[in-house]
Amino acid sequence: xxxxxxxxxxxxxxxxxxxASGKLGQLxxxxxxxxxxxQPQPPLAAATVTDxxxxxxxxxxxxxxxxxxxxxxxxxxxIREAQLAAMSVSNAQPPPEPTAESSPSPIQE
Length: 109
Hints:
This protein is mainly alpha-helical.
């Protein structure tokens, strides 16, 4: 009986080793059974960001969906920063240049 148990253990370990090495073939591609929610395109609004939903995967969210949303947020931030910079430049008033009437006359001796 002990010999039979030892033989079964050896066979199971051998099959596991062969399977781990890939000799029994590859696993099939995963089947996506849930539709992927559409990802927003930049520029984003605050309400759009709160409504973002990601498709789930084995270990959490699908990384490509999250990467796409982060890219859209990054692009939106670049757009807003450029708009703020343009507004601050247009709102900045240069100091008035002195005119002939307001400039002091040179000292003559």
